[in-house]
């Protein structure tokens, strides 16, 4: 299973004045809400927590259509490296959150080592902002095609029961795929058993975008692009 979520911190929806106490009470546990009120960087932290909850909901929804998005029931536990888990009921989902400038990108996997997980986030170009749903699809398709060594023209994404499905040469692939966009940013995450042996973090530029696409199969995942934010210890 896989899930992801992107938040653009520069979007007006994410600004401090756009958040109200009623939102916090509805979305966060009492402990999470208390940590927000005590943290001077609570705007950033608020959306780190939100993205982890949203990404977990997407992953859990793949397992059961009965899962309802009740944010306060998704309990986030992250360390200083922004890795940890989200608990929903008796299940704990591994999660990692990355920050690059104004982009917050959370990825959740059913595998604690993120085996065979490919993920990335990018800033959409001006033309893509008119149709960000298409923009995130093209970004995901380009990144996945490059990683798997297939032609992008042979790939497409279809929605099946509102869940994105990757199609290669007319046939559904055994790939769990999640897409997200918000404001000027888009992100994706996918899990493919064919890339389980890969173990690297790569920097690439797709279609002229400054992009970080990361592939990992063990707990040593780290990206230099995000290291400065990790070392700041955003979550205390």
How would you summarize this macromolecular structure in one to three sentences?
Helix content is 27%, strand content 36%.
Please describe what this structure looks like:
With 236 residues, this protein is of the alpha+beta class. It has one domain (2-229): Alpha-Beta Complex (Ribosomal Protein L22, Chain A), CATH 3.90.470.20. The chain has helices at 21-27, 30-38, 42-63, 132-148, 224-231, and strands spanning 2-8, 74-78, 83-88, 91-100, 103-109, 117-123, 155-160, 163-168, 171-172, 176-182, 185-191, 200-206, 209-216. A hairpin with a 2-residue loop joins strand 8 and strand 9.
Keywords:
alpha+beta, 13 strands, five-stranded antiparallel beta sheet, 5 helices, disordered C terminus, Ribosomal Protein L22, Chain A
